[in-house]
Specification:
10 strands; 8-stranded parallel sheet; 10 helices; 14% strand; 30% helix; two-stranded antiparallel sheet; 381 residues; globular; alpha/beta
Length: 381
């Protein structure tokens, strides 16, 4: 039937259905409103922002600068049936929080030093704003919640779409400006705490900063709680950051000693065979406690059988289902911001396995975030 043969009601209904279809329109993450947060709409308040960082400086297969676009494509059907997360008993899209897609940070492909600065400044410009929604009261005690930030203000949260993992260094610099040294939960098949002399050889100061060394530099700069200056002494008493899904080869066992000095505990991917997802969740929660935490997810933490489109794939990883289960186990943690990185869509299957996996992983992260406000109850004197 042509439009000219339809009644006004039928024509109006057809236009509405087409406009709202998940395969139509501008592709934002999960069909969220697009807000130009860094330019002409910078005054629009928000609670959670999806933000792309299309940066590339990888050591093996290139393509991660197309990650933000690919992840958005993979997220299109997240709201096909409404978006209710059954295991977590929440619909993050109907949580009452203002959640938007801010598009991408303008990142130059010609100068990595400048690009890293652009990522830090773009992230910081959004993070340092006041959140749209008030914290309210604690759901258990009814007491008023106080922000956990250093300045006592309630700040928005940002979920960054990478880009390769180098972007976490400027992101942690931004996080430090609001929360100070932060605990980190890091899902990855690689350590990413390598010394520059070991990973890449550091032929220049800029080459020393890459997707295998950024946590080394973050520790050196004091961005991570219990960083390199005291981690080697206090590791057995208090280590607030953790790697999960590690299964990489090493240059030598010294890589683990250096990882210790950077303030991390490790969970090997193969531990899931003995302690299961529950044991891994327990280890993570015991490590970070109730402190504010930053969450960084490399898509290569998932086995390439489920997520092949990445720059440095490693076999023997977790399934998509296992990682999603572990992320749901973080329910209740104060996740101040998060990222997912190293998605390189050019290596994906025609079925978009990797980009869908990345989007579904972020759906779990978003659900956890919407359930737990970034506030604490101050003890009464």
């Amino acid at each position: 039937m042509f439009a000219s043969q339809m009644s006004p009601t039928e024509a109006s209904t057809m236009k509405a259905v087409t406009a709202d279809a998940i395969f139509a329109g501008i592709t934002t993450f999960a069909k969220l409103p697009w807000v130009q947060c860094l330019t002409r709409q910078r005054d629009v308040p928000l609670d959670i922002a999806f933000l792309g960082a299309p940066f590339l400086s990888t050591s093996y297969r290139p393509g991660a600068r197309f990650g933000p676009a690919g992840i958005r494509e993979g997220s299109r059907r997240l709201t096909l049936y409404g978006g209710y997360n059954v295991p977590l008993e929440v619909n993050p899209f109907k949580s009452g929080l203002r959640i938007v897609d801010c598009g991408d940070i303008p990142v130059t492909p010609y100068d990595n030093k400048h690009a890293i600065r652009q990522i830090e400044e773009g992230h910081k410009e959004i993070l340092q704003r006041e959140a749209y929604s008030a914290l309210g009261n604690d759901s258990l005690t009814g007491d008023k919640l106080t922000p956990i930030s250093l300045d006592g203000r309630n700040h928005p949260r940002i979920i960054t779409l990478g880009g390769d993992h180098t972007i976490v260094l400027p992101l942690l610099r931004s996080i430090h400006s609001v929360y100070g040294p932060i605990s980190v939960i890091h899902f990855d098949s690689h350590l990413d705490t390598w010394k520059p002399s070991v990973f890449g050889g550091a032929p220049s100061d800029q080459a020393a900063i890459n997707h295998g060394t950024y946590f080394y530099w973050a520790s050196q700069e004091g961005l991570i709680r219990n960083g390199s200056s005291i981690a080697s002494v206090l590791r057995f008493i208090f280590v607030p950051s953790v790697h999960g899904a590690i299964r990489t080869t090493l240059s030598s066992i010294d890589d683990y000693y250096n990882d210790d000095a950077s303030g991390f505990q490790r969970i090997e991917a193969r531990e899931i065979d003995t302690i299961g997802t529950e044991g891994i969740i327990k280890k993570i929660r015991e490590t970070v406690g109730d402190r504010p935490v930053y969450l960084s997810i490399d898509i290569d933490s998932i086995d390439p059988a489920f997520a092949p489109a990445t720059g440095t794939p490693e076999t023997g990883g977790w399934s998509t289902r296992e990682l999603r289960t572990i992320l749901r186990g973080l329910d209740g943690l104060h996740i101040v911001s998060a990222d997912i990185v190293e998605v390189a869509p050019a290596y994906d299957t025609n079925a978009e396995l990797t980009t869908m996996a990345a989007a579904d992983v972020l759906f779990e992260v978003l659900s956890v975030m919407t359930k737990t406000p970034l506030g604490k109850v101050v003890p009464k004197v």
